[in-house]
Each structure stands twice: as C-alpha cells, then as structure tokens.
Design goal:
Elements: H1 6-12, H2 22-46, H3 49-56, H4 60-66, H5 70-95, H6 101-116, H7 119-132, H8 136-157, H9 166-182, H10 194-213
Helix pairs in contact: 1-5, 2-3, 2-7, 3-4, 5-6, 5-8, 7-8, 8-9, 9-10
Length: 215
C-alpha cells in the first residue's frame, strides 16, 4: 500500500475550520489508511464510520471531528489518491528532465499501468466506478479525478506532432485515459503473469503513441 504524503493529507483537510496539529495529521493518516484498506477489502458497504473508528482505535465522535460523514471520508480518500498520482508524475518529470517528450509520456503511462494493476488500487477504483453509477457524490469525485488525469496527459502529449491541433490533443488525452483505465477490466497481474503483463504493456505503448502523435 503506497504511503500517504503530508501534502495529500493537507489537501484532504484543507477545508477544516480547526487548526490541524502534527498529531492531527498523524491521526488523519491512520484514518485514511484504514479507510483505504476497508474499501479495497469489503467495498463501500463495509466502509462504515463506526467500523473505521473501531479499526483506527478511536471513538466515533473523534473520527467525526476529522470527517463528518462517510461521503466526506471517501472524498478525502480519493483526493489523497489523486495527489499521490500527481506526486509520482512530478517525480518522473524531474527525474527525466531533458529527456525526449515521448520517453516522459511512456514512463508516465508505465506508472499508471503499474498503479492500477496493484490489488488495493485496482479494488478501490472498481468500487468508485461502481458507486459513480449510483451516487451523485461519487460520480462527481470520479469526474474530478478523470479531469485531472486528462489534464496531466494533455500536458504530456501536447506538441508531439505540430499537425495535431490543441483541441485534438485534448480529445486524444480523453482517449488515452480511457485506454489506461479500461485495462482494469483485465485484472492484469505483473507478478503472477509477467509475460502477459509485458505483452500488454508493449501493445499499450504502440496504441497510445499512435493516439498521441499520428495526425
């Protein structure tokens, strides 16, 4: 399970009226880790406020000091997940400064593929997708996440081919995100089936390079 950064916690708590102490940040980390584990293992039905409080070793009223409702808790969880993805993309950008744009794009694609095929992340995304079809708040959260991904991909592919317009690049960014997210349906396992994973990865590179650069 990936660590949750202080910046992610700060974003998740940025709307709280009270001042969050260092101890408070630590408790927020614990709460979100518990919530992530429960959501991945037992789904939205198993993610109850009382269960999260119990697993985190605190009272329900104490939990509600951080997150007043189950919806707020889920929103914070998804926000931290989005921030973790952004942090990974930022690290790739720094590490590959000066490298060809296409290499930075494909390295970021590999990161996304790696993340969405991890069991915990895979389960969380599946649960959020299912919720988005039934709950307006989950649909809104998923829309925000997809919007951030599209914007990030747009920044990675913009200008690869001068013959492609800005509007077309944005449209292609939508397709790139859809291709990557759609691979969750196949439940790829890079540990148990490394050859299959490598083959899909190579095919994905070809498809996405075509989307990103062919007029």
């Amino acid at each position: 399970m990936p660590p949750i950064s202080d910046d992610s916690i700060d974003n998740a708590l940025r709307n709280k009226a009270s001042t969050t102490t260092e101890k408070g940040f630590g408790r927020a980390v614990e709460i979100l880790l518990v919530a992530r584990r429960l959501l991945a293992a037992e789904g939205y039905a198993g993610l109850t406020m009382r269960r999260v409080a119990q697993e985190a070793g605190m009272s329900l009223s104490n939990l509600q000091h951080y997150y007043g409702s189950k919806e707020q808790l889920l929103e914070a969880l998804l926000l931290t997940t989005m921030d973790e993805f952004q942090a990974k993309m930022d690290r790739i950008a720094v590490a590959m400064a000066g490298r060809p744009q296409v290499e930075r794009f494909l390295t970021t694609v590999d990161m996304f593929l790696d993340e969405i095929t991890k069991p915990t992340m895979h389960a969380i995304f599946f649960e959020i997708w299912a919720l988005a079809s039934r709950h307006p708040f989950a649909s809104s959260l998923m829309g925000k996440m997809m919007g951030r991904e599209r914007k990030a991909v747009y920044g990675l592919i913009q200008g690869l081919n001068p013959a492609i317009t800005e509007e077309q690049y944005m449209e292609r960014a939508v397709l790139v995100v859809a291709q990557i997210q759609g691979l969750m349906l196949f439940r790829l396992d890079r540990v148990a089936c490394p050859e299959q994973y490598a083959a899909v990865r190579a095919s994905l590179h070809k498809v996405l390079l075509s989307l990103a650069s062919v007029p």
